Amino acid sequence: MRSFVTAALVTVLALPVCAAGQDQKSLQTDDQKTLYAVGQVIARQLSVFDLTPQELEIVKQGLSDGVMGSKPLVEMEAYKNKIQQLAVARRDAQGNKLAAKSKEVIDQAAKEKGAVKTASGMVYVPVKEGTGTSPAATDKVKVNYRGTFVDGKEFDSSYATGQPVEFRLNQVVKCWTEGVQMMKPGGKAKLVCPPDLAYGERGSGAIPANSTLVFDVELLEVSK
């Protein structure tokens, strides 16, 4: 965490501030687009601080002062450790908030019509019954799906790409391996996956660590 936060802040203080309120049309040159992308990268790196709009303005002031060579408003040496402490505190607060919301989503899903909460902690909610034989863990399946966080924000979707995906059930996250085996071809279901059955403490790409995930799954085909 220390090297990550330090690298992020060093990167911020080494780059110029882009004008606020840029829209896509104002990004004319490749350099402008690259600098905008840099801003997006920095934003992701600083997401651990869970900044409010007011706090973001303070960060922008520090960024501007650093770039312009103005005298810092605080003694930087004195605040090195405090940067790390704040990052840890904010991360823990986000984790507690996420855990509370995740429990709420899992509990609500378990009360839905036909819902089954398995021994593993996953919640399976049938939406449309399929026909035929349910897949085994070693079978290959073709599915459409939509994945969202507990706040409803979508992070992935085969519907968006128009391309169903195929995989063997024993080669994906445990929640899918378990949940899709409860489906039949042509069926649709919602899978509510606690972190330990999804991407756990490591996360994956756009999925933060310890995320409870909700998948709307449509089982199209099963093959050996």
TrEMBL record:
InterPro entries: PPIase_dom_sf (IPR046357), PPIase_FKBP_dom (IPR001179), PPIase_FKBP_N (IPR000774), PPIase_FKBP_N_sf (IPR036944). It comes from the Bacteria. One of its GO terms (molecular function) is peptidyl-prolyl cis-trans isomerase activity. Its EC number is 5.2.1.8. Residues 138-223 form the PPIase FKBP-type domain. It catalyses: [protein]-peptidylproline (omega=180) = [protein]-peptidylproline (omega=0). GO terms for biological process: protein folding. Residues 1-19 form the signal peptide. Keywords: Isomerase, Rotamase, Signal. Gene3D superfamilies: 3.10.50.40, Peptidyl-prolyl cis-trans isomerase, FKBP-type, N-terminal domain (1.10.287.460). Belongs to the FKBP-type PPIase family. This is Peptidyl-prolyl cis-trans isomerase. It comes from Geomonas limicola.
